[in-house]
Design a protein that fits this description.
Blueprint: E1 6-7, H1 19-30, H2 43-55, E2 65-68, H3 71-82, E3 88-93, H4 98-103, E4 109-114, H5 125-131, E5 136-142, H6 154-164, E6 171-175, E7 201-206, E8 219-222, H7 225-238, H8 244-255, H9 257-280, E9 295-296, E10 306-307, E11 313-314, H10 317-328, E12 330-331, E13 333-334, E14 344-347, H11 352-372
Parallel strand pairs: 1-12, 3-4, 3-5, 5-6, 6-7
Antiparallel strand pairs: 2-8, 7-8, 9-14, 10-11, 13-14
Bound molecules: 4'-deoxy-4'-aminopyridoxal-5'-phosphate.
4'-deoxy-4'-aminopyridoxal-5'-phosphate binds near residues 11, 70 and 219.
EC number: 2.6.1.-
Keywords: Aminotransferase, Pyridoxal phosphate, Transferase
GO molecular function, one term: transaminase activity
Length: about 375
């Protein structure tokens, strides 16, 4: 029987978007919310975004929020308006490949700062200090991490802020798009940390991941008013505002958050266990147990430089992923894209039975490589 293709490579979860969001969008369309809206976002959504942070003890204002068509656009707004020729953006790796792709269209350059699986992908303050210099303009943290699933604790963030506060030209950009997807403990936003300076801290967030709304293109940035106003100007000149009926959907998602998020998180927590068990059943696969987001990022080096039953040699994780796709109809995202050769990213945000089947196939495929060596 032919195998059904299974993909663990997507950045989107399989969940349907929250019903209240869909209902609000339809109602908005029926009410005729189809003309240009304010570039910066509707007052109601900007306020609701502030309420989320202020309920956690912050004091942010709607003027500090720009609603964007996806958080990618928030990053692009920022890179375009903030970076001058040669400015450095320090990115701890492994990191989401989108940062590098976006940087191609800006004047800045990515400076990778490697973190290691053997150290639990910790970003060490000393390593950060050695990397920062006068050209460093942004430190870009992804918290929870994609692809590692690593969550920086509050004390880790505060130790990093002690370093960054010695560099007055540096902005700390925290991409928190997976903030609600945390398994073992509370997630702390950069802005809640001691030492986070309001005039130097910028959050990127959106509805694609936590709310399973990737196709809606809904994101936002929250930062100092001066930066936000430059980004409003840039977005106004290029894309303008997010459609008002979509913003109504985002507002409904936020308002119904306590009802809509727990069921998704419960499935993800269960799938995380399934994937952990599946990977543990394969010899010599090492990984970091993700604290958040919905990926494992194992290292498959043990299985490289071996021959497949048909005689091909798999040298890189790209080769390995190609082998899995061609022979087992199983798609993974190669680690090379994330600055981590030898690894691959596996999403567990798919239906549990499919996930179990995928892990079986992976085990079978890798075991054949051992036999053949
Ligand atoms: N940041 C990170 C870390 C991501 O993983 C992604 C999507 N893969 C994005 C930003 C972009 O998300 P969106 O544009 O859909 O909001």
């Amino acid at each position: 029987m032919p195998m059904n293709p299974i993909s663990l490579a997507s950045g989107a979860s399989y969940f349907r978007s929250p019903a209240p969001a869909t209902a609000a969008a339809i109602a908005g369309l029926k009410e005729g919310n189809t003309t240009y809206g304010p570039t910066e976002g509707t007052p109601a959504l900007r306020q609701a975004i502030c309420d989320f942070y202020n309920n956690g003890g912050l004091h942010v204002k709607p003027e500090q929020v720009l609603v964007t068509p996806g958080s990618k656009q928030a990053l692009f707004n920022l890179f375009t308006t903030l970076l001058c020729q040669g400015d450095e953006v320090v990115v701890p790796t492994p990191a989401w490949f989108g940062f590098q792709e976006l940087m191609k269209y800006s004047k800045g350059m990515v400076v990778p700062l490697e973190t290691k699986l053997s150290e639990g992908y910790a970003l060490k303050p000393e390593a950060l200090r050695k990397t920062l210099n006068d050209r460093s303009r942004i430190l870009l943290l992804t918290n929870p991490g994609n692809p590692t699933g690593r969550i920086y604790t509050q004390s880790e963030l505060e130790a990093l802020l002690e370093v960054t506060n010695d560099f007055p030209n540096l902005y700390i950009l925290s991409d928190e798009i997976y903030d609600r997807v945390a398994y073992d403990g509370p997630f702390t936003s950069l802005l809640s940390c001691k030492g986070a300076k309001e005039e130097r801290s910028i959050l990127i967030n959106g509805f694609s991941k936590s709310f399973a709304m990737s196709g809606w293109r809904l994101g936002y940035m929250l930062g100092p008013e001066e930066i936000i106003s430059k980004c409003v100007d840039f977005q106004g000149s290029t894309l303008a505002g997010v459609s008002v009926f979509l913003q109504k959907a985002a507002l409904a998602a936020l308002e119904q958050e306590p009802e809509v998020l727990p069921p998704m998180l419960e499935v993800l927590a269960q799938n995380r266990r399934v994937m952990q068990q599946g990977l543990d059943a394969i010899p010599e696969v090492k990984y970091y147990l993700p604290d958040g987001a919905y990926y494992f990022f194992p290292v498959f080096s043990f299985y490289l430089n071996r021959r497949t039953p048909s005689g091909d040699t798999l040298t890189t994780s790209v080769d390995l992923c190609r082998y899995l796709l061609e022979r087992y109809h199983l798609e993974l995202a190669p680690g090379d894209k994330f600055g981590a050769p030898g690894h691959a990213r596996l999403s567990f945000a798919i239906e549990t039975p499919k996930l179990q089947e995928a892990l079986q196939r992976l085990k079978q495929a890798l075991e054949l490589l051992i036999v053949d060596c």
